[in-house]
Structures are given as C-alpha cells and as structure tokens.
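User: Predict the structure for this protein chain, please.
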Amino acid sequence: MSLVGKKAPLFTAPAVVNGDEIVESFSLDQYLGQKEVVFFFYPKDFTFVCPTEILAFQEKLAEFEKRGVAVVGASTDTEETHLAWLMTDKNKGGIEGVTYPLVADTSKTIANNYGVLAGDWDYDEEGQLSFKGLPIAFRGTFLIDKEGTVRHETINDLPLGRNIDEMIRLVDALQYVEKHGEVCPANWEEGKDAMQATREGVADYLSKH
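Assistant: Here is the predicted structure, written as structure tokens:
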C-alpha cells in the first residue's frame, strides 16, 4: 500500500551521522517544519550496487542542501557495520566521505512500516515463526515534505539502482508547486513552463508545446 499522501511512519533508531559518530536516538522528527527529506533504503552494507547509490547521493548532496533538503539513508545493518563501512576507503569497497545520516534498522520495523522489506514473517507447519523472503530492504526512496507527509515514493528491486538526478528533479517540482500553486507536466524540469490545473490551463500549455 502506497504511503503517498500519508504521514511518514515515525521511528527512533541508532544512526551514524557526519560519517563518524553514532547517535542512539535518531529521528526524522528533527526536520519537521524545517526541511524536506529524501529518505532512502538500501539492501546491505559492504555490497556492490549500494555503494554506487550512497556515493552518488553524497556527490549531489550540495544540490539537495542548497534546496534545503536533508538526505537520510537506512538499511537493516547495525550502526557498527555502518560505521565500519564509512571508515573503509572507496578503493576497497567502502563509502568513506559520506556525511549524511545512515540509520540502522536492525529490528526491520522501519523497512516494514515503509513497505520496503523484501520478505515477511510467517509460521511454518510446525507453528514456528520464520521469515519468508529476504530480511533486507528493497531500494525504496521517499520524498517527505516539511509537514511530514510523503509526496513521492519509488521502490526498486534489489538489482536496480536509482537515478539521483531524478530525485533532484522531483524536489524542484515539489518546491515549485508549493511556491507557485501550479502543476508540473511530464518531463518538467526547473526553468520549464508549468501549468494551471484547469482545462484551460492544460489547453494553453499544450498549444505552446
């Protein structure tokens, strides 16, 4: 079930911030009323596609920050594993240099509440609780506005990496809509025409394009 239009699920969990500091009680609540948040899940530390995405977010971090947007990552690994990966050189498969927070969802409840857990708990024929599927997160990405409402979500299967520039485009679209009260048509980018959400507005836009 989609979270779009709903409040982002609340959580408090350990995280690594600034690339080198473990905090025990991290929450997205700190951004309410202050910043939009791009909150993304990735499957596992010390893997292959994941560092390319995490480092790509870091490379574009200044673009998010100049738009007043916080970037936060999460996986089901421990905070200690996050820290070890952050301390590992990129040439050795690490993500050294990443400064935005990485949340440790070891209970898997955050991934479950956001609908990105790649499996579920069930009882077998003997009545024993077991996990069906993979106890890690899909590549879920959520754009959360300043009021804590999810405005966009995408969920990629494990082998499919994200497009970070698309997230920046969506941030621009959200901020444009909130500022101007217009809507953004297909393939809209910053600097292009938007349109009024009326029949006349659509007709005017289409006549010019």
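The helical segments are 49-59, 61-66, 79-86, 109-113, 164-180, 199-208.
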